[in-house]
Write a structure and sequence with these properties.
The protein is of the alpha/beta class and 346 residues long. Helix content is 29%, strand content 25%. 48% of the residues are buried.
């Protein structure tokens, strides 16, 4: 595959991205080389571009993590469950766990991804739809394992286990809903009113307007009326911990409540008696993390796509311009989108 390809390169902290050429890498033993057809954008991408946070270890850097494309080449030890060369694939192509290696970022025409984060893209889905999955799925599923809920959990209605997802219309929130449903939870979620119906189609049992002054009372009343146990929650968005704890205080009973918190937890964050609040982060040990990534992609996502129980979410907002258009697309995301995922065809 020796050659060169175009990439949106971050030359130094504070951006902007600039399109240039890079040498096309050869995949390592456990890696897959992807010809990128579409990338999805996440808030972390503009945080890294504009502020160098989370830390960017090496400049020039290539950002991004969410891709769909064609498998160009596979490493010598890639297991047979990974897609073969020439086939369509969804790939988690981030440099985050690769010491910042620019061969691994998504914002380029050819990128490397570890095989645990590469699965087949079903024929029924476009590249643009396929690109929405990787980081949001990994984040949503890691929230469960970080509070001790294995991904093969299957509660039954008799177990009466509920979960509260605060921030359900976000990209992570939509997969939090889909995954919670697959684990057997009764799902309560919050979102702007215009997204309620959509979140119900994804599997939410009840959705509440987080802007309502009595939203906490509304959720507590619904849980009590449904006669269900609510002592598990995922805070997807900033500012959601206090109202989540206000709900749990009334619904958890004698149980130890468990809260996964996706935004960074400030040191002075609110607390609640008999409640564990855990920052949502994959295992630090590389072997454990690789196994977890394999379960997220080759287990939950691949199985859900095959059965049709997992769908791309939220709706895709396509921005043009290819690699050259990424700065403008990131600026659009930074201003704020609601209930949509920005995707750029490459």
């Amino acid at each position: 595959m020796a050659g060169r390809h175009h990439a949106a390169i971050l030359p130094q902290k504070g951006g902007p991205l600039s399109v240039g050429e890079r040498a096309t890498p050869e995949p390592g033993p456990n890696e897959v080389l992807i010809e990128v057809k579409a990338v999805a954008l996440n808030p972390v991408d503009y945080h890294q571009r504009d502020f160098g946070m989370p830390p960017v270890p090496i400049y020039p850097a290539v950002l991004g993590s969410d891709t769909a494309g064609i498998v160009a080449k596979v490493g010598s030890k890639v297991v047979s469950t990974a897609p073969e060369p020439g086939s369509r694939a969804i790939a988690f192509a981030s440099s985050f766990y690769q010491n910042g290696s620019a061969d691994h970022g998504a914002f380029q025409k050819y990128t490397l991804a570890q095989s645990e984060g590469v699965i087949a893209l079903p024929d029924a889905l476009s590249f643009e739809e396929g690109a929405v999955f990787p980081l949001a799925v990994m984040t949503a599923l890691t929230a469960w394992t970080s509070i001790g809920i294995p991904l093969d959990t299957r509660y039954t209605p008799q177990d009466k286990q509920a979960v509260l997802i605060w921030g359900g219309a976000s990209s992570v929130g939509t997969f939090a809903i889909q995954s919670a449903r697959s684990l057997g939870f009764t799902v309560y979620a919050t979102a702007s009113r215009r997204h309620h119906e959509y979140l119900e189609t994804l599997g939410a049992h009840a959705v509440f307007d987080y802007k309502a002054s009595d939203v906490v009372a509304q959720i507590v009343d619904a849980v009590k009326k449904d006669g269900i146990k609510l002592h598990t929650a995922h805070c997807v968005v900033e500012g959601s911990l206090q109202p989540t704890l206000d709900v749990l205080k009334e619904t958890k009973g004698d149980a130890v409540a468990k809260v996964a918190h996706s935004p960074v937890l400030p040191p002075d964050h609110p607390t609640l008696d008999n409640t564990e609040i855990t920052f949502n982060f994959p295992p630090m040990d590389p072997v454990a993390r690789d196994k977890h990534m394999y379960q997220c992609f080759h287990g939950w996502l691949q199985g859900g796509l095959k059965s049709g129980s997992v769908v791309p979410s939220p709706s895709v907002q396509v921005e043009g311009g290819g690699l050259e258009g990424l700065n403008a697309a990131l600026d659009t995301l930074k201003v704020g989108v609601s209930g949509r995922k920005i995707v750029v065809p490459i």
